[in-house]
Design brief:
The chain is mainly α and 685 residues long. It has 28 helices and nine strands. A hairpin with a 5-residue loop joins strand 4 and strand 5. Helix 5 packs antiparallel against helix 6.
């Protein structure tokens, strides 16, 4: 009997069939997931027992459309584990993960189902299928093979065991990191606040108040940690906070991730080798634009060579300023980097992040970012308070196309809280697809951890937070403009090293005067951001850009070091990490620190052997944005070509085909080197 109180199992009359979050309880997931598995099993049985010969519709499309209840329940569980979690939800996830993994394996390891897929693949006239249908057929067959369909019975069992362990360990890794982050607080007295801007002080006071304590509290959340490292004069406290941040999940407690890192790395290697690949990276890169480890290393090494000399100069410049202030024997340590970099930036460009904050009040930034999409693509946004949300901080918008047709629902979740992981991300609560009933539009979400409003001030963002907003909003556009028939090829379901192009191209607008002038106004006086301040933002946009590039390369090299291994890892995680990225490290090495244990992207977030994607996509976005620069940054013809050829196509064609259709040529690294000032306009790299 259907439980009429379970929002997964009943029909609700919410705007655009949005999910009724206000009715959702942790106890609703398990029955919905179990029912979803049961329903999909029946759908799979119907496919394999169909007496008609296997064809594209009765096998490939039928499989694509199966499992809608399960898809909805598991997507919601996954999304809320990141955005609004609690112990109850985590317990549900721990219980359900093995079940979900087993079910997924039962499908991809089903011999009769795979036989029908092969039958379609071998017999269908591919010339009679559309480009998208061919891609769906190709992807379906390939995903089954990549999930073990061709393995022997013995190896299939091993594959099942490995994937179950992998899903549980990724969950444990994330839970440990969230709990460790939430457990830390640094209590400060008034005397210890020297150098800190008023915005940070008031935020620390508010944190203390929220925790029912006196004084000021700093946490490891980015809006709390970053300003402290940039402005706190007390070097010992900077060191204390730096060490707390960079030793997360290494302590002798239940949140230690050192063994879990080894387990995850070894499980991914085992899975790849079961499938006939020598490394986990080979397995992953088979489905990427980069195609091979050699090509990834070629890019990373090319950038390393191009940026290292400039990065060394940048560090020397920061060191010189520190020694000028502290004496010639002063050794610049990692906990000094942000502090003295900020001082140098102020000295060189008279630019202080705090000076910009009053011009970036959150509601104005929202207006600016949404307004940019309106100018480029003609789309409009309307907040709808009748759309249920999963937390009071979340805003829900209806998005309309230029012809006023409904395009998407956009959820925006801006502030940090204990129930939310750190960082920023875009996700979908519902993908886009088309069927006989028409075009089913997507529900997408952007989730950030921005500076919160305080008792006496609205939320005033830093310039880098504005950049983050633009980045995640670029992903959201990719999701919202989706225009494909099949859900699995829709929106951001593209190769990982292509998925960052739509997000990173948006960041380019942040230093464009024409864009800043549309929204950056002083939150108290209404005065537009002065031209000379914009000029200082532009002038400083490449400040320490090479050091930042080396930091990204260090993460890319660490990722590749873990996943190009051919043998299981049994050594010391910290030692291995330091060896992996040593050629990118310019500041002194700190013994106890460890990135791998908190590197969610590559351990628990889908970027294993994929972190290079940010730099790969940066080459693409610099090259692509140079066309906007050439034609005018608000040029609607260029924007519509980008929408038509890239944003709306999802994974229906190979990314390079889509990119060349938009750009007219393959990308080159030149535009990035020029944008970053590594080479001048006339130089050849």
């Amino acid at each position: 009997m259907t439980d009429i109180t379970n929002p997964f199992l009943t029909v609700h009359h919410t705007p655009h069939q949005t999910f009724p979050f206000h009715l959702l309880e942790a106890g609703h997931y398990e029955p919905a997931i179990r029912k979803g598995i049961e329903e999909q099993n029946k759908e799979i049985d119907a496919i394999i027992n169909n007496p008609d010969p296997a064809n594209f519709q009765n096998t490939i499309v039928a499989l694509e459309k199966s499992g809608s209840l399960l898809g909805k329940a598991s997507a919601l569980l996954g999304n809320l584990l990141s955005a609004e979690t609690n112990d109850e939800l985590q317990a549900v996830a721990e219980k359900m993960m093995p079940l979900l993994t087993e079910h997924s394996n039962n499908i991809t390891l089903n011999e009769k189902l795979f036989a029908r897929i092969k039958e379609v693949y071998d017999n269908v006239d591919k010339a009679m299928l559309s480009v998208e249908e061919n891609m769906l057929l190709e992807q379906t067959k390939r995903s089954f093979i990549r999930c073990g369909a061709n393995l022997s019975e013995k190896n299939k069992e091993e594959f099942r065991k490995t994937s179950a362990e992998l899903s549980l360990n990724t969950l444990k890794f994330s839970q440990n990191l969230l709990k460790e982050k939430n457990a830390y607080e640094l209590a400060l007295t008034e005397e210890q606040l020297e150098g800190l801007p008023e915005s940070a002080i008031s935020a620390y006071a508010q944190t203390a108040q929220e925790k029912g304590k006196e004084g000021y509290i700093v946490t490891l959340q980015a809006p709390s940690y970053v300003p402290f490292m940039k402005y706190a004069k007390n070097r010992e406290l900077r060191k204390e906070l730096y060490m707390a941040y960079n030793t997360q999940c290494t302590h002798d407690n239940e949140f230690n991730n050192l063994e879990i890192v080894k387990t995850l790395v070894n499980l991914r290697l085992k899975r790849a080798q079961l499938l006939g690949f020598s490394t986990a990276a080979d397995y992953v890169l088979k489905e990427r634009m980069a195609e091979s480890s050699e090509n990834v290393y070629q890019l990373l090494n090319q950038l390393l060579e191009a940026y290292t000399p400039t990065a060394r100069q940048e560090v020397e410049e920061v060191k010189a300023l520190a020694q000028e202030e502290e004496g010639k024997d002063f050794e610049l340590m990692p906990w000094d980097w942000a502090y003295y970099s900020e001082k140098l930036k102020e000295k060189k460009y008279s630019l202080n992040e705090e000076e910009l904050r009053p011009y970036f009040e959150l509601s104005q930034v929202i207006e600016g970012v949404f307004g940019l999409a309106t100018r480029l693509y003609g789309i409009t946004f309307k907040e709808n308070k009748d759309i249920p949300v999963y937390h009071p901080d979340v805003k829900a918008y209806e998005v309309y196309d230029k012809d006023e047709r409904f395009l998407a629902v956009l959820y925006a979740d801006f502030y940090p809280r204990a129930s939310k992981r750190s960082g920023a991300w875009m996700t979908s609560y519902k993908e886009q697809w088309k069927d006989v009933e028409g075009d089913s539009r997507p529900h997408v979400s952007v989730t950030m951890n921005f500076t919160k409003p305080s008792a006496d001030k609205p939320a005033l963002l830093t310039f880098s937070e504005v950049n983050t907003f633009l980045h995640e909003f670029g992903h959201a556009l990719h999701g919202m403009f989706a225009d494909t028939t099949y859900q699995s090829l829709s929106g951001t379901n593209v190769y990982w090293d292509f998925v960052e192009l739509p997000s990173q191209i948006m960041e380019n607008f942040a230093i464009e005067k024409e864009f800043l002038n549309t929204f950056a106004k002083h939150y108290q006086t209404g005065e537009a951001i002065p031209d000379e301040l914009i000029q200082r933002i532009v002038d400083s946009s490449n400040f320490n850009v090479a050091y930042a590039c080396l930091r990204q390369l260090s993460f890319g090299l660490l990722d590749m070091a873990w996943y190009t291994r051919t043998e299981p890892f049994e050594g010391d995680v910290r030692t291995y990490e330091k060896e992996a990225w040593k050629q990118t490290q310019i500041l002194p090495d700190i013994a106890d620190t460890c990135m791998s244990v908190q590197f969610s992207h590559i351990m628990a977030g889908g970027y294993a052997a994929g972190y290079y994607s940010y730099k790969w996509a940066e080459v693409l976005d610099a090259d692509a944005f140079s066309l906007f620069k050439e034609k005018g940054i608000f040029n609607t013809e260029t924007a519509n070509s980008f929408r038509k050829n890239v944003l709306s196509k999802g994974g229906t064609e190979h990314p390079m085909t889509l990119y060349k259709r938009f750009r007219g040529k393959e990308p080159s690294i030149d535009a990035l080197l020029k944008r970053n000032g590594i080479i001048t306009k006339g130089e050849q790299p």
